[in-house]
Amino acid sequence: MVFSLATERLVLDDLTLEDLPHIRRIGNDRELMRYVLIWLDTDEQIRLFLQHAIDEAEKIQGRRDYTLAARDRRTREFIGLTFIEIDPAQESTAEVGIVLLPAFCRNGYGSEILRTYLRFGFGTLGMHRVFGKCDEQNLPSARLMERCGLVYEGTIREHVWLRDHWRSTRYYGMVAGEYAAGRA
Ligand SMILES: CC(C)(COP(=O)(O)OP(=O)(O)OC[C@H]1O[C@@H](n2cnc3c(N)ncnc32)[C@H](O)[C@@H]1OP(=O)(O)O)[C@@H](O)C(=O)NCCC(=O)NCCS
């Protein structure tokens, strides 16, 4: 059965093999991927990424990784790639991430998706902490997390070579008490 979450205007649901061209479109867009720490640079990486998402979706029990397509609720047009993943080393923590096709940015979709993942993460998954991270040069991503109430936690400096620069990563998080108090 396909897993899905509804936002106001979108549905977030499992990827299928038919999404390969969409993922390729994302991976091939160098500008879009500039600050994204996901390796979709080669056909093999794209294939492995999709296969991993499909394998996770097929798990009957113990699913930790929800890598989901964002689609228009009405037309089912593919809008972007999103995920919430329970940290393998910290059972009560989950990470969220969002990569939207450029045509769909700055429409408030990112905020809708992040709020939906906060609800799912603290609600259904019962997480104690939900966090997101971004390249310190990625202003839209930082603004998105701040707007949704995540708190800046710190920066790991220049810890990975990301295609054309040393990436410093800003961490933003929310804990269950903050969510319960209506911070999102
Ligand atoms: C980051 C991203 C998910 C934001 O999603 P979005 O749907 O555009 O975000 P929203 O429309 O909900 O806006 C969130 C905030 O970011 C701001 N913002 C969005 N795009 C921006 C831009 N290009 N420059 C500056 N601010 C921007 C919005 O104005 C808003 O801030 P506000 O509260 O001050 O108004 C989207 O831009 C994206 O997919 N970027 C490319 C991939 C990427 O870098 N993903 C993040 C990986 S960590």
Structure commentary:
The chain has one domain: Aminopeptidase, CATH 3.40.630. By secondary structure, it is an alpha+beta fold. It has an eight-stranded mixed β-sheet with strand order 1-2-3-4-5-6-8-7, with helices on both faces. Coenzyme A (COA) binds next to β5, α4 and α5.
Main attributes?
184 residues, alpha+beta, eight-stranded mixed β-sheet, binds coenzyme A
Helices, by number, come to 6
Q: Helix and strand succession? A: EEHHHEEEHEHEEH
Radius of gyration: 16 Å
Q: Give a list of the ligands.
A: coenzyme A
Question: Could you please say which CATH topology applies here?
Answer: Aminopeptidase
Strand content: 25-35%
What characterizes the major β-sheet? 8 strands, mixed
CATH class: Alpha Beta
N-C termini distance: 30 Å
How much helix is in the residues?
Answer: 25-40%
SS content category: alpha+beta
Output the CATH homologous superfamily: Gcn5-related N-acetyltransferase (GNAT)
- Strand tally, please? 8
Shape: globular
Mean pLDDT figure: 97
- Spans with pLDDT under 50 lasting ≥5 residues? none
Q: Domain count, please report it.
A: 1
Which strand order spans the largest sheet, edge to edge or round the barrel?
1-2-3-4-5-6-8-7
